[in-house]
């Protein structure tokens, strides 16, 4: 296997593609990613859809039809998005069947504007689940306290959930607990748990972006060269350390005797999904995060650019559990230099929700702009 992407699967990592774009579906590019690069799942978020709908003319034909039916911009966006999701779900269904429901999923996000509203998040999750009506759909729900309550209820209703925008260890632990509790509830009711699936999307590179900027501030604020060197040595380290400790927590949660009883009844692990694995800092290796987080029972959802870089020069080895003591020491050292892990991860979750909510609004605005361009508004 000369393609490094194809070497991930034998090591237990599933490659998912972080984008949905109708132009890529029509051109056959998505099909090639499935066939040639070993992609076994697809994730979407408001930002990728907003860009896709604004760009080019791939959606024009359906938009003309929906406009002629008198649909609002919001309804048009809903129908454009769910059409793509359903198409991709059908493309991935053979993977879903051949992997016994382990992979072959496509994810669709409820509006992040509802991230702090449990009832409305649940309402949207149910609406999308019933509208798309595919067993290999996952509904993306943010890992806020309100979102965790919603995702636990959605799982008990047999709705597959991709829990998104997780940044901290504590947040991850609460998400994993909610998933296990949902399995328990269904089993106690005598309901099937074999076909229920969930992943916990842990965001990676954004942590380094924020922490590195804070470290730069710390370096500028001192003239002590020893202290400057100590602080600089932490740059580019936080994100990988954080994810490795999450994987350690994952191993602990899903290796207990308690979970083993759920597994015997058909319950699947809630795998960690590494999101935001593109490298934001050009000073770092362009496949840094993808290379350093490879391990069994994980998913990496990569954007196209990262897939292309990894295909070209990715180095594949079991890396996820490398030097866990050092990973813990890095987070401790960050606290020692005055960077609060709790504050940073909370800020990132809040900013992530704000950015995705803004993309939802931009997507609706994009639909309105196209309506105007078509002379119908």
UniProtKB/TrEMBL annotation:
Top-rank taxon: Bacteria
GO molecular function: transaldolase activity
Keywords of the record: Cytoplasm, Pentose shunt, Schiff base, Transferase
InterPro entries: Aldolase_TIM, TAL/FSA, Transaldolase_2
EC top class, as a word: transferase
Subcellular location: Cytoplasm
Similarity comment: Belongs to the transaldolase family. Type 2 subfamily.
Name the record gives this protein: Transaldolase
Protein source organism: Ktedonobacter racemifer DSM 44963
């Amino acid at each position: 296997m000369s393609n490094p992407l194809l070497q991930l699967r034998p090591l237990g990592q599933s490659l998912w593609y972080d984008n949905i774009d109708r132009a890529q579906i029509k051109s056959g590019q998505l099909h090639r990613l499935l066939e040639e690069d070993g992609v076994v799942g697809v994730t979407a978020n408001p930002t990728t859809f907003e860009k896709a709908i604004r760009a080019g003319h791939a959606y024009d034909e359906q938009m003309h039809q929906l406009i002629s039916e008198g649909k609002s911009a919001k309804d048009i966006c809903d129908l454009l998005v769910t059409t793509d999701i359903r198409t991709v779900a059908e493309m991935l269904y053979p993977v879903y069947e051949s992997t016994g429901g382990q992979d072959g999923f496509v994810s669709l996000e409820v509006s992040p504007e509802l991230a702090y509203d449990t009832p409305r998040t649940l309402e949207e999750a149910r609406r999308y689940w019933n509208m798309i009506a595919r067993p290999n759909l996952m509904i993306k729900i943010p890992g806020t306290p309100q979102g965790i309550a919603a995702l636990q209820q959605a799982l008990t209703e047999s709705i597959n959930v991709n829990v998104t925008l997780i940044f901290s260890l504590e947040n991850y632990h609460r998400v994993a607990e909610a998933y296990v509790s949902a399995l328990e509830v269904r089993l106690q009711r005598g309901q099937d748990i074999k076909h229920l699936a969930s992943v916990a999307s842990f965001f990676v590179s954004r942590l380094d972006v924020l922490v590195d900027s804070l470290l730069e501030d710390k370096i500028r604020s001192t003239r002590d060269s020893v202290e400057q060197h100590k602080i600089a040595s932490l740059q580019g380290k936080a994100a990988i350390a954080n994810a490795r400790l999450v994987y350690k927590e994952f191993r602990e949660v899903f290796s207990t005797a308690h979970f083993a009883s759920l597994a015997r009844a058909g319950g699947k692990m809630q795998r960690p999904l590494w999101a935001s694995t593109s490298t934001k800092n050009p000073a770092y290796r362009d496949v840094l995060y993808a290379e350093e987080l490879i391990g069994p029972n994980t998913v990496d959802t990569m954007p196209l650019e990262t897939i292309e870089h990894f295909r070209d020069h990715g180095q594949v080895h079991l890396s996820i559990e490398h030097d866990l003591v050092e990973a813990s020491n890095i987070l401790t050292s960050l606290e020692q230099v005055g960077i609060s892990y709790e504050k940073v991860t909370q800020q990132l979750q809040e900013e992530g929700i704000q950015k995705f909510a803004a993309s939802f609004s931009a997507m609706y605005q994009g639909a309105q702009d196209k309506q105007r361009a078509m002379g119908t508004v």
